[in-house]
Every structure is written in C-alpha cells, then in structure tokens.
Amino acid sequence: MEVSPNPHGLGNARGLPGVVRTLLAFVMPQPIIKLSGLSKVFRTREVETHALSGVGLSVAPGEFVSIAGPSGCGKTTLLSILGLLDSPTEGRYLLNGEAVEQLSATERAAIRNRTIGFIFQAFNLIGDLTVFDNVELPLTYRGISAAERHERVRASLDRVGMASRMDHYPSQLSGGQQQRVAVARAIVGRPAVLLADEPTGNLDSGNGRAVMQLLEELHANGATICMVTHDPRYAHAAERTVHLFDGRIVDGAEIRGIHELEESGFELA
Ligand SMILES: Nc1ncnc2c1ncn2[C@@H]1O[C@H](COP(=O)(O)OP(=O)(O)OP(=O)(O)O)[C@@H](O)[C@H]1O
Ligand SMILES: [Mg+2]
Fold first, then answer.
1. Sign of CA pseudo-dihedral 4, 7, 8, 9
2. Does residue 219 register a pLDDT over 80?
3. pTM of this prediction?
C-alpha cells in the first residue's frame, strides 16, 4: 500500500488506507508532545540502568494522560525528560513541533519556564518564601510588570482557593493546602503542558480528591496534563493511560483517535 506523507506526525497510522490517513492528518491536531525512539541510560561506576528504552509517545493538545507502571519502571525519568529537567541519551523529542532533545541546559530552562508547569509529590515549595512569592517565582524572569505579576498570582491563588493565605509560609499550611499552592505556581505562567508526578501521593484521600478535582477542572478548561499516579482511582480521571514496564511503553502510546479508528474496521491494509 502506498504510504502518504504524514505531516502531523501521527505515528502509528500505517494500518489505515492512504485517504483516511491524509484526512486524519488534517483533522487531528498536531501532537504537542511527540517522542520517538527515546532512551535514557544512567551510568554510575557500578551499574548501567536503562531507565527508558525506545519510548515513542504522542500527546495531543488538551489531552489528560496518566502514566502508570511499577516502581522503578521509568515514570519519573520520563516526566523529567518531558519537562526538560533532563535530556535523553538517544531519540527525538518534539515539543510544540520544536526539537528539544539536544538543547543546552540554559536553553532547556528558558523553554521550560515558558512552556511547562510542574507539580511534584513533595510539593517542593520554597520554605522561606511566602505563598505569594512562591507562586510569583515562575514569572520573575519574564519581564512582566509588578502590577501584572501581582494580578496573575492573585488569580492563580483564587483559582485554587488559597488567596486568603498569600502571606503564609509553606510550613504554616497543611499538605493539601501546600499542594494547592504548588498547583497555583504550576499554572501561573499559563504553560502549554502541566506535568504532575504523584500529585496526590503525600495527601490523605480528601485532599487527594480535592487536588484531582482541580486538575480535572484545569483539563476541562483546555490544559494538557501528563500525570504519574499509582492510584487507579485517579488514573481514571485521565482520558488515556500510558503503561510503562521496565522502561518501555507497553500500552497507550498513541493519541486515541488513531487507535480507535484502526480498531473499528479501518485496517484494510
Ligand atoms: N539519577 C539517576 N542515576 C542513576 N539511576 C537512576 C537515576 N534516576 C533514576 N534512576 C534509575 O532509573 C530507573 C527508573 O527510575 P524512576 O525514578 O524513573 O522510576 P519510577 O517509575 O518513577 O519509580 P517510582 O514509582 O518508585 O517513583 C530506576 O532503576 C532508578 O534506580
Ligand atoms: Mg517516580
């Protein structure tokens, strides 16, 4: 079968007839994240760990993807590479269509600051900054006026119900409140992608649900979210689960429309 060009990089569409692939390329959005052949090897003096091996993954704008798999399978490594905190040993990473796998740490930091919001299991707020100052941090290197920064920090804190605690320090807040502040910090820069690593892992079930509800609301308003979670209750909040095992994706690597079309009888090849 003739293979037509696939300008939007929609990966695994080879089983589809050419005309359907061409149509899909126009109607499906360009992935905001596209990994191919991605590997990460950690080398220490004693061992070489293949944390990721040949990972391919596409995420469409506005998708909510959860990443699941046993401890040590590479979830945090994958999220760190997606968030430009680390770079792959091999492979390609297109973020918003731009190749970012070979950038220097400084270039990565600049793109990260504009494009990515992070939420970590351990909140990672800075203890000697107030809630306001913690949330303002991602805006400080962007040449935004103090008045606009103030407005955006306030709006983010309002969004997570923490505006009344602006002058508190993290140690004066509960875990759930700290994580809500961390969500405010992650969204204040209006990032293209939100990355969350076990965001409910340190919370009791009530606070866990509240944080998840917040993520679901952000997603309903258009946010693209990739979230690592061990908790099946929360994995269901996502539209798609990517299953990792031993550094490889064993299920859920492709944007859903393609799989569903292939499975529903379009595989005529
Ligand atoms: N900086 C590092 N140096 C050496 N090895 C590392 C490093 N970071 C991760 N690894 C190894 O890479 C593998 C994947 O680790 P990773 O933290 O991505 O797992 P994970 O799926 O997030 O696990 P968990 O569910 O326990 O958080 C592990 O074997 C780990 O020991
Ligand atoms: Mg981890």
1. positive
2. yes
3. 0.85
